[in-house]
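> example.struct
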């Protein structure tokens, strides 16, 4: 058979072309084309940031209320 990339005559059972190094067959498992595997969707990260901001806000409010409560108890 001939190599698809450089048209060199290579052995029928060759997996790669000896001349240009290209594979003679398509890879069985195609690499993911649209989204990277290790990157989460953006909205979940944004939701996480919102959650952290909410927790910090609640902590600040409770600390502020603890400072105010002795003033009201006088
Ligand atoms: Zn080739």
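> example.seq
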């Amino acid at each position: 058979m001939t190599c698809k990339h450089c048209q060199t005559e290579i052995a029928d059972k060759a997996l790669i072309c000896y001349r240009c190094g290209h594979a003679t067959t398509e890879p069985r498992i195609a690499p993911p084309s649209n989204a990277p595997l290790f990157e989460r969707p953006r909205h979940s990260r944004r939701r996480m940031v919102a959650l952290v901001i909410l927790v910090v806000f609640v902590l600040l409010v409770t600390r502020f209320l603890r400072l105010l409560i002795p003033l009201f108890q006088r």
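> remarks
The mean pLDDT is 84.
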